[in-house]
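Entry 14. Ran structure prediction on the chain below.
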Amino acid sequence: MVYQKYRRILLPVLLFPILIIIWELYIRIFEVPNYLLPRPLELAGSMVDLFATGGVGKHIIVTMKEILIGTVAGIAIGLVMGYIMAKIKFIERLIMPFVIIIQTAPKISLAPLFILWMGLGIESKVALVILVVSFPIMINQVSALRSIEENVYNLLHVFKATKLQIFMHVELPYSVEMLLSGVKLALTQAMTGAVIGEMIGAKAGLGYLLTLGSETYDIRMILNAVILLSAIGLTLYLLSEFVERKALYWKELDKSVIG
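Output, structure tokens:
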């Protein structure tokens, strides 16, 4: 019973020490040089040193700020654009080709343009995050509104519901599930956008540490930056999943009733 309830947590916790042992054995058996792959304890010690000196804190804050500001702005823009495109098909036909062209362009090729236009500060990274976040939100918003049956709108028109009432009582509830799914995807995209921007040109951030570690051949710095980015990404994903589960509590109730 306890295992079934917490298996999503227990399985990774049990797997983690096994991976550490395999890592250590691989280095010992194949005599991997320390500058290519440090031992787990050495890497853990370097991570502690990073936090002890206080140098890594500002980089985490910068990256988190880029992700959060860009994600919030990207969600807002994606919702507005998605709503307009779902309601006015002419706007969708007009804008969608350009949106697809921008989204299919490799973000690593767009990052230098943003940095050239906006500088090495946080603005260029936030703009890149907005670009990658707004698209999945916009697409999910359009799909959600298009999934509402025409009969629902006809019934509301019979009852002379206002546009605000239609939005609040039909369109918004219909959009919540797909919006939250889009947010989970958008958060992973936001992380990628911020890191790409920082690696191309930045004064601070975890992506900047990746570049610095590569230039100075510091494998510990690179691995520590990767671990921190993975931890942040996992935390944001779990947080969005928690919010989704709480917001869509009725789905769990349905499962319990059916089950």
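The longest helix spans residues 163-200. Will compare against last week's run tomorrow.
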